[in-house]
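User: two proteins, same treatment. go.

Assistant:
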Amino acid sequence: MGALMNLPLSMPVVAGWGAWLAAGLVLVVWARHSREARLRAFAQRSAARSIPARPKSGVRPPKPAAPAADAFGELQALLDPQEQSVAHRPGD
């Protein structure tokens, strides 16, 4: 570190450091702009079409819901006498 402190700060060294820092700043601004442009393009693309998410491995799709039972229909069937095709007598 002592050797660096003993270097004379001449105009070419100062100009070189300035150019180096300016180039780094340009690269940082360019990278940020490029990243934001990619994010905007991705957002527009994903908003334009929706892709269904794939389920995780081992996850089963939900089973369809069973049809709702007709409670009054079941009660009516229990209370009404059932018609029998063959006549049965009690005790047969």
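Protein 2:
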Amino acid sequence: MQWLQWNRPIARTDARSVAASVVAVSVTALLLTGCATTVSAPVPSQRISAEEFRYVLPPLFGYPLTVPLQTEGELKAAASGLADSSNWAATEEAVAALLLRDPGLHPATLLLAQVEFLGADYASAVALLGPVVDELPDYVAAQLLLGRAAEKLGQLPRAYAAYRASAPRINLASARAAQLKERALEIVYNRLADSLGRGRLEDAETNLARLKEWAPDEPTTLRAERGVAVAVGDLERELAVVGSLSELDPGERSLRERLAELELEVGEPSTGLRILQELSAEYPDDLDLADRLSEAKFVWRLVMLPKEAKDLVKSEELSRGEFASVLYWLFPEVRYSRASAGLIVNDIFEQTGREQIVRVVNLGLMSVDLAMHRFYPERPVTRVEALTSFLSLMARSRPAPACLGAHDPELGASVDATCEAAARCGLLTEAAECLPGGPLSGAAAAQLSRRTLERLGVE
């Protein structure tokens, strides 16, 4: 097998380059042999394991292309001596002659790989067979031998892939694939996890594709895809995977909770709400779960709003006019109650939400410059203005929440008093997070609205 030792780089070439290299070296070997003047000593016979010889099939077995009858006969003759190592040199010479005529003759390359395999040079066998099966994945004899050679080298994912490719026609391959599957999946999964840990998303996707090809419905594959979805921030993809995982293990609480969250965010909010209601019934003492259920009900309320209202909740910074519309749409009391006699406001006639502004102003929930009769709808609403509006809504309810104490928002309470009252009533975790002069996003307005509605007992 001296020719292969001279030509180790073939493992990095394509099938055609491999064949060309084999031809060149083999022809050289033949010429040297022909010019020799001394008689070589006989090659000692090597005992071939019957177990390993099971992986050496006739070179044309499962070959998807056609070969001339003469070539077929020559291949069979070259393969006939494989069981006896003393014939391997003759096999290599015959293969070199075949490749000289047809450098792309895959069964000839397979014969060389079989010689290397039987001589326990598994790395050389893999190097020869890799380009062949890349070009002809349905070549059964090549896949079976590649599977065993890779297995001998401890390359279990590669071995499993090769066995799997030849399993439909070879019982031996099917049996080996079944034995290696779990370990091969585990190795690829660990490679994927390592790729994610290193931020190599392309490598992770490559390993995931292999898992999905091998075992699309296995929990290992689903967990891997969830990891990739989380890494790339694809919530819709994660939703699909978590749904499948939850079906496989319906009793897993964490999966059900995450499924509910994803349904509420990017799926069907009604489904998310239903899951949380079921969980809350199963775990009635879980306060965190009760809070998430309350939030889910609020999300459902948002889903039912017209598009203009939903767009406001997504706004990065609300104006006073937009905040008035948020109050109008999120609080039934504002939308349906009777307002007192109207105030004259001169700067809202061009506003698309002027009807909502009028309702909020006439309920006394937002201030107006009485001297100038101006509402300033375009000015950004501040957090303290928003908190004052929410506290005013509480003050209007009967009975008013005890958390308000003596606080009366309509009497022009100080900023500090407003922040403290908001904290007592659960709008803020503590008064220090008030940030009274800061702007208000649509999401923050929605959260404050939710807490106010809870305090008012509105679901």
